[in-house]
Specification:
The structure holds 2 protein chains of 2 kinds.
Chain A (H helix, E strand, L loop, with lengths): L2 E6 L3 H11 L6 H5 L16 H14 L10 E6 L2 H10 L4 E4 L4 E6 L1 H9 L5 H8 L1 H4 L1 H6 L8
Antiparallel strand pairs in A: 1-2, 2-4, 3-4
Chain B lengths: L2 E8 L2 H10 L15 E9 H7 L6 E4 L7 H4 L14 E5 L2 E5 L1 H17 L4 H4 L8 E8 L1 H11 L6 H17 L14 H22 L6 E4 L11 E6 L2
Parallel strand pairs in B: 1-8
Antiparallel strand pairs in B: 1-2, 2-6, 3-6, 4-5, 7-8
Helix pairs in contact in B: 6-7, 7-8
């Protein structure tokens, strides 16, 4: 075990897409989030299906509209040394860390930070391992960014 | 339309704890304050309240745009309960004396904004007429630690009534959703006002945990806060059950 994904919110990509759309819609975020079938009519809104969610998230990635990707958290149990953890903390204000013992840490951040790391230039093994877990937690984003599924 | 606070996405702390235990790590809820996040959809709150909310900078917000959402599709306002509905304010405009109540003034600003748009003025300029009472929707995410800081400040008796009502509604919601992580507020030790209401929330959570646990996965559970929490204005409070 070097990086073990231990927690993330279910439907987190749908949450981010609903938050994004809520900025431009007369309808609030939760109504958009649950607009998943024809049974519920939301005037002027497309059904919030996988295609719609994917479209909104890809648009956010194109525009660099990363703030909508902050409405979630992803948590890992990680084996790392202090230097690696310090690097993460310096890279973003959104990293939260708790030291468990000499080599193990509980780390939390959000999708925005992972996207920025994935698009960044650093290729530290720990960063790569964290980014690879996007395939499980945020498959639409992972596929849009072509994240490899390699495990350490 | 009553304001709503909907806790619709949050870390599944029991699952997180189980996953850590599988890896041989035992951490209690009090160790989770920096980990995970909780996301609220706050609907139909005033711009006066949302301005105060976004001052909590270590959080994430997505707020309804006044430029892109047309006033004719989004207009609403919140009248402070402290202003009587029938209270008339004398005003003089272009030599005409008028007695207007709060609702009349809201109606006037809406008509003026729509009128500007109808004359071809851009929405981004017309909206400068929008009053602080105009309602907005905002999606907000915070970690438990940030939320506790928010509650300590905004549940206090000297907090402004609208944000205070919202803060108590949100506090009750997180107590129901993540009881192992959120306990009594630290500020209760210094304030009888907060202490008394925290114990009201304790009772509310105890009475509602059974109904909440029986709510189908993905559905909302409504927490009835009134009359026990003595909110100044109604805030419909919901928690999504996983």
């Amino acid at each position: 075990m070097r990086v073990r994904l231990v927690g993330y919110e279910p439907d987190l990509e749908r949450v981010c897409a609903a938050a994004m759309r809520s900025c431009y819609s007369p309808h609030p975020g939760y109504e958009l989030f649950t607009h998943t079938s024809q049974d519920k009519v939301l005037d002027g809104e497309k059904i919030f299906d996988t295609e719609r969610i994917g479209g909104l998230l890809k648009r956010a990635l194109e525009l660099g509209h990363y703030d909508i990707l902050e409405h979630n958290s992803i948590t890992w149990l990680v084996e790392a040394d202090e230097k690696e953890i310090l690097f993460l903390m310096e890279s973003s204000k959104f990293f939260e860390t708790s030291q468990i013992d000499e080599h193990r840490w509980l780390i939390t951040t959000n999708l925005r930070v992972l996207v920025e790391l994935a698009r960044g230039t650093n290729d530290l093994p720990l960063t790569k391992d964290l980014v690879a877990t996007l395939n499980e937690a945020a498959p639409i984003i992972a596929s849009a960014l072509a994240i490899p599924t390699t495990k350490s | 339309m009553a304001s709503k606070a909907i806790l619709f996405s949050y870390t599944n702390y029991p699952e997180l704890t189980r996953n850590l235990e599988k890896a041989g790590v035992k951490l209690g809820g009090e160790n989770m304050l920096r980990h995970g996040s909780l996301t609220f959809d706050l609907q139909g709150i005033s711009r006066a309240a949302s301005h105060q909310i976004v001052r909590h900078r270590i959080a994430s917000f997505s707020q309804q745009s006044q430029r892109y959402v047309r006033v004719t599709r989004s207009y609403g306002y919140l009248k402070p309960p402290g202003i009587p509905q029938d209270l008339k304010i004398p005003v003089e405009i272009q030599g005409h004396k008028l007695d207007l109540n709060f609702t009349d003034v809201m109606d006037l600003t809406r008509q003026a904004e729509e009128g500007l748009v109808a004359k071809g003025i851009k929405a981004e300029d017309s909206r400068y007429l929008r009053p602080n009472a105009a309602t907005t929707n905002i999606v907000m995410s915070m970690s438990p630690r940030q939320l506790i800081h928010f509650f300590n400040l905004r549940c206090a008796p000297d907090a402004q009534w609208e944000i205070r009502d919202l803060a108590w509604s949100m506090y009750a919601a997180v107590r129901l959703a993540a009881p192992k992580v959120f306990g009594p507020l630290p500020a209760a030790e210094e304030s009888d006002y907060i202490k008394k209401r925290v114990s009201v929330v304790d009772d509310l959570v105890r009475k509602n945990e059974d109904g909440f646990s029986k709510t189908p996965a993905g559905e909302l559970f409504q927490l009835d806060l009134q009359p026990s929490l003595e909110l100044v204005h109604p805030v419909k409070t919901f928690v999504r059950h996983y």
